[in-house]
C-alpha cells in the first residue's frame, strides 16, 4: 500500500538591496508596517511547522578530484533550535525489528565492518523501517532518448544490487518515492585546504519531515553528467549505500563505500553489508511517533 505523500512547503528567498547612500541609517519603518511584517512571519513559521517540514540537515558528496571527501553540514545542535513555538518533540531513539533479509545475512568470511565510521545524526541512525523502500530514477531530458534510457538502466543496475539486502521498489511517481535519483551536477565545493571550488561526481542529501506525527525522512541523490559506464555504476552504488543508512565512508578501497573513486570500482562487499546490518540494529527516532511539547 502506498501511503499518501506528506504536504510540502515551498520557501521563497528574496534579496533586498540597501540604498547606496548613507541616509538609510535615519530611515525607520512605520509601526503599523512592522506589525504587519511580524504577523506574516509568525503565520509563515506556523504554517511550515504545521505541515511537517523540518529541515535539510546535511549531505555527503563524492569528489573525483580530491583524495578524501568531506562532509558539508548545516545542522543544528538540536532540532528544537528551529522551532521556537509549540511544536513536536523527538522521542527517545528505539531500534526497529531487523529486516528479514539482513537477519538471514551471514558473513562466513568474517571480514568485519566499518560501523565506527558511520555518523550518528540528531535523530539517531538513518535507517528505514517501512518496506519496500520506494525508489524513483528520473529520466534525463537533456540528452537523447537512447542515451537517457542507457543512463537509467545503468543506475537501476546499481540499485538492484542493494535489493538483495533490503527490499526495494522502483516507482514511476516522484511524489511517493523515499529515494530520488537525478542526473544533475552537484554544487561546486571548496576543499578544506583551498578556496578553489572543485567539481564533485555525486551528492546525497536527506530531509526530515513528519507524516501523521511520525518522524520520517527522504533522500535525494545527484549524479554528475560526467559520470558514465562503470564510474556511473560505482557512483550510484556508493550513493545509494548512503541513502540506505550507511552515513559514512569505508577506509578500504575494496568496499563500495570507500571515500574516493578508484580506477577499478569494487562491487558491494561483505564489509559493506556487515556495516549495513549493524546500522539496522541501532536505535533511531525515525519511524516512531512524536510527542508534543512547548519550547521556551
Summarize the helices and strands and which ones pair or pack.
Layout: H1 31-50, E1 53-62, E2 71-73, E3 87-89, E4 94-95, H2 100-103, E5 133-137, H3 145-162, E6 168-170, E7 179-183, E8 189-190, E9 197-198, E10 202-211, E11 214-223, H4 229-243, H5 270-279, E12 283-284, E13 291-293
Parallel strand pairs: 5-6, 5-7, 7-11
Antiparallel strand pairs: 1-2, 1-10, 3-13, 4-12, 8-9, 10-11
Helix pairs in contact: 3-4
> What do we call the CATH topology?
Collagenase (Catalytic Domain)
CATH-wise, what's the superfamily?
Collagenase (Catalytic Domain)
Alpha-carbon distance between the two ends: 40 Å
Spatial order of strands in the largest sheet = 2-1-10-11-7-5-6
Q: Level of helix content?
A: 10-25%
List its traits.
296 residues, alpha/beta, Collagenase (Catalytic Domain), 7-stranded mixed sheet, two-stranded antiparallel sheet, 5 helices
Describe the structure.
The chain is α/β, with parallel strands linked by helices and 296 residues long. The chain has one domain (53-293): 3-Layer(aba) Sandwich (Collagenase (Catalytic Domain)). It has five helices and 13 strands. The protein has helices at residues 31-50, 100-103, 145-162, 229-243, 270-279, and strands spanning 53-62, 71-73, 87-89, 94-95, 133-137, 168-170, 179-183, 189-190, 197-198, 202-211, 214-223, 283-284, 291-293. Strands 2-1-10-11-7-5-6 form a seven-stranded mixed β-sheet. Strands 3-13 form a two-stranded antiparallel ribbon. Strands 4-12 form a two-stranded antiparallel ribbon. β10 and β11 form a beta hairpin. α3 crosses α4 (229-243). The longest helix is centred in the first third of the chain and has 20 residues, at 31-50. The radius of gyration is 22 Å and the shape is globular. The protein starts with 30 loop residues before the first helix and ends with a strand. Mean pLDDT is 78; it is low at 1-31, 45-58 and 62-87.
Amino acid at each position: 500500500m502506498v501511503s499518501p505523500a506528506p504536504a510540502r512547503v515551498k520557501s521563497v528567498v528574496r534579496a533586498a538591496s540597501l540604498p547606496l547612500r548613507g541616509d538609510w541609517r535615519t530611515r525607520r519603518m512605520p509601526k503599523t508596517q512592522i506589525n504587519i511584517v511580524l504577523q506574516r512571519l509568525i503565520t509563515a513559521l506556523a504554517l511550515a511547522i504545521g505541515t511537517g517540514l523540518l529541515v535539510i540537515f546535511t549531505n555527503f558528496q563524492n569528489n573525483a578530484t580530491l583524495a578524501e571527501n568531506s562532509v558539508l553540514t548545516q545542522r543544528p545542535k538540536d532540532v528544537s533550535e528551529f522551532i521556537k513555538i509549540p511544536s513536536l518533540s523527538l522521542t527517545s531513539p528505539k531500534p526497529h525489528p531487523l529486516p528479514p533479509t539482513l537477519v538471514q545475512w551471514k558473513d562466513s568470511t568474517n571480514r568485519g565492518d566499518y560501523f565506527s565510521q558511520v555518523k550518528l545524526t540528531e535523530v539517531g541512525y538513518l535507517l528505514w523501517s517501512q518496506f519496500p523502500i520506494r525508489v524513483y530514477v528520473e529520466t534525463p531530458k537533456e540528452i537523447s532518448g537512447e542515451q537517457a534510457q542507457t543512463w537509467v538502466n545503468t543506475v537501476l543496475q546499481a540499485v538492484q544490487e542493494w535489493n538483495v539486502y533490503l527490499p526495494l521498489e522502483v516507482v514511476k511517481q516522484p511524489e511517493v518515492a523515499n529515494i530520488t535519483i537525478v542526473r544533475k551536477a552537484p554544487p561546486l565545493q571548496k576543499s578544506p585546504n583551498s578556496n578553489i571550488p572543485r567539481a564533485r561526481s555525486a551528492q546525497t542529501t536527506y530531509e526530515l519531515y513528519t507524516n501523521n506525527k511520525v518522524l520520517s525522512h527522504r533522500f535525494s541523490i545527484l549524479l554528475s553528467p560526467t559520470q558514465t559506464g562503470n564510474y556511473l555504476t560505482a557512483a550510484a552504488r556508493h550513493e545509494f549505500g548512503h541513502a540506505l543508512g550507511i552515513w559514512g565512508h569505508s577506509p578500504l578501497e575494496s568496499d563500495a563505500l570507500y571515500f574516493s573513486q578508484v580506477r577499478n570500482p569494487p562491487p558491494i562487499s561483505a564489509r559493506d553489508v556487515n556495516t549495513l546490518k549493524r546500522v539496522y540494529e541501532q536505535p533511531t527516532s525515525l519511524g516512531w511517533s512524536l510527542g508534543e511539547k512547548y519550547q521556551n
